[in-house]
Automatic annotation (TrEMBL):
Residues 197-209 have a biased composition (Basic and acidic residues). It comes from Lepisosteus oculatus. The lineage of its organism: Eukaryota, Metazoa, Chordata, Craniata, Vertebrata. This is B30.2/SPRY domain-containing protein. CDD domains: SPRY_PRY_C-I_1. Gene3D superfamilies: 2.60.120.920. It comes from the Eukaryota. It holds the Pfam family PRY. Residues 2-197 form the B30.2/SPRY domain. Residues 197-223 are annotated as: Disordered. InterPro entries: B30.2/SPRY, B30.2/SPRY_sf, Butyrophylin_SPRY, ConA-like_dom_sf, Integrase_p58-like_C, PRY, SPRY_dom, TRIM/RBCC. Transmembrane segments: none annotated. PANTHER family: E3 UBIQUITIN-PROTEIN LIGASE TRIM (PTHR24103).
């Protein structure tokens, strides 16, 4: 459990390296919202303010946007919601509708986290999934360009990068294990310490050193 908390803390520390200074844009604020002079706070007022109906301003939905937008990169910010029982936070497309009632859906350009009736809502998953697919696609393209197919033979000894017993989020080289057979082009069967055979798929096995079975130096297979 301690290792799990450590992993989460490390992830937050990495995210904070991408912290941005968010300032709210009063030109976009709904007339019921009162934005502080420095643009760092907003509160709901009881009286609808008499404000210019400029194109940027929300007039139906009680929303406000930040001044600065972005098209790429990593961005991190923290928001204190206080004791509010209903709220929504997230990112939107610049082209969203501002003069009509809208639904906070990804189809309408909203990716948000929210609180309603003591239940949290999450509309960020589609955005994260799309981003992950693009990143994986770029990684695969780069991987395919640099791949060098290596073949291991029965009797070779290899080191395997396996999840650490202390924390499965971290990998650790273990072995050496002896290869029994090659079952598929990139899958091998090795002798595991518990004396059972185990299939180990390798998308890109790399050999740093190879010796016949019984040699003194193990091979190393890894990503």
């Amino acid at each position: 459990m301690e290792h799990g908390r450590l992993a989460v803390d490390l992830e937050f520390e990495r995210a904070r390296r991408n912290a941005v200074d968010v300032t709210l844009d009063p030109r976009t604020a709904h007339p019921h919202l009162i934005v502080s002079r420095n643009g760092k706070q907003v509160r709901h007022g009881d009286i609808r303010q008499d404000l210019p109906d400029n194109p940027e301003r929300f007039t139906s939905c009680v929303d406000v946007l930040g001044k600065d937008g972005f098209t790429s990169g990593r961005h991190y910010w923290e928001v204190k919601v206080g004791k509010k029982t209903e709220w929504d936070l997230g990112v939107v497309r610049e082209s969203i509708k501002r003069k009509k009632q809208i639904s906070l859906s990804t189809e309408d350009g909203f990716w948000t986290l929210g609180l309603r009736n003591r239940t949290y809502t999450d509309r960020l998953a589609p955005l994260m999934g799309d981003h992950l697919q693009r990143v994986q696609g770029r990684q695969k393209e780069c991987y395919d360009r640099s791949v060098q197919q290596r073949i291991f033979l029965p009797g070779n000894r290899v080191m395997l990068l396996l999840p650490s017993p202390e924390c499965k989020l971290y990998g650790r080289w273990q072995g050496p294990y002896e290869i029994c057979e090659r079952t598929e082009p990139v899958t091998y069967r090795v002798y595991h310490p518990d004396h059972r055979k185990k299939d180990i798929p390798r998308e890109r096995p790399e050999t740093l050193e190879r010796t016949p079975c019984g040699g003194d130096s193990p091979c190393i297979a890894g990503q």
